[in-house]
Structure formats: C-alpha cells, structure tokens
Amino acid sequence: MITQLEENVINSFRIAKSDIIKLQSDFLCLSETQERMMEMIQYLRSVNTELQKKLDVRKTPKKIVVTKKVVVNGNKKRTHYVASENAKKFHIVECPYAQNIKPKSMINFKSKVKALNEGLKPCRCVK
Fold first, then answer.
1. Which of 11, 51, 97, 111 is the most buried (most CB within 10 A)?
2. Is residue 75 part of a domain?
3. What is the mean pLDDT of each run of 10 residues along the chain (127 residues)?
4. Is the pTM of this model over 0.70?
C-alpha cells in the first residue's frame, strides 16, 4: 500500500511534469515566433537595400548651367551709390533711406565695389 507521504511525492512529480510540458510548449511557440521575426527582418533588410539603391540613383547630381547676361555699352543708366559719413550701409540714390541723408554728410560712390572697399554693407535696395 502507498502511504500518504508517497502519494504526496507522486502528486508533486505529476505537477512538476505538467509544468515542464507546459514550459516546453511555450518555448516551442516562442522559438517559432522568433523564426518568423527573423524572416521578417531579413525581408525588410532586402527591401531597404532595394530602396536605398533607388535613392542612390536619384541622388546623382545633375549638371546645372548658369548663364549671366552682361550688357556692354548698352543704354542702361549707370547706378550711383550713396552713404552717410557715419553710416554702416550704402544705398542706391532712389532708396527712401538715401533721400533722408543730409547733403552735408552724403558720400557718393560710382560703383558698388568702391562702397564695399570702404567697409560699408549694402542696403536691401542694392542688387
């Protein structure tokens, strides 16, 4: 006959065995999920590589042609520039700021380069 103590030991082993079987089942399920995730990662990496190749093809630099129109001895009116003696900027004569400069303190420049060489900065009216 089986004693109460032996019966308790047998029941404990049955419970442990069922717990081990459940853990094995959970482990297999997790392993399958991991495999599916790895396959998905590999697929996404290949798609990423293809997209990167397409982007690299589009990023190839295109040649930009810049043309500049130069007027030589045209009928274009020469622009004069003005500044105040104690100012930091120079203006075209038609600029509203230039018209506020008093004649006593006005300095005239025949070119933009000469005004820049004096250390002045161009106003927004200067192109």
1. 97
2. no
3. 88 95 95 95 93 75 58 60 90 90 91 90 88
4. no
